[in-house]
Design goal:
By secondary structure, this protein is an all-alpha fold. Helix content is 92%, strand content 0%. The protein is rod-shaped and about 55 Å long. The two termini are 23 Å apart.
Length: 63
């Protein structure tokens, strides 16, 4: 997966996770809320991985 696709998938997971957390909170569904928190965290990790790949590529390109 490339850096751009990592960042896009990450943002999608962050948003979906936040929605699940909101729905879980509104309905009292602790399982859904926890699942949403995990998905949001996964998204943040994906975005960070994409940014790290960009940084490595930029460094290599300057060599």
């Amino acid at each position: 997966m490339g850096s751009t696709s990592d960042k896009i998938a990450g943002k999608a997971n962050e948003v979906a996770g936040k929605v699940k957390q909101s729905v879980g909170s509104a309905t009292g569904n602790d399982s859904m809320r926890a699942e949403g928190a995990a998905q949001e965290t996964k998204g943040k990790v994906q975005v960070a991985a994409g940014k790290a790949k960009d940084a490595v590529k930029d460094t290599v390109d300057r060599m």
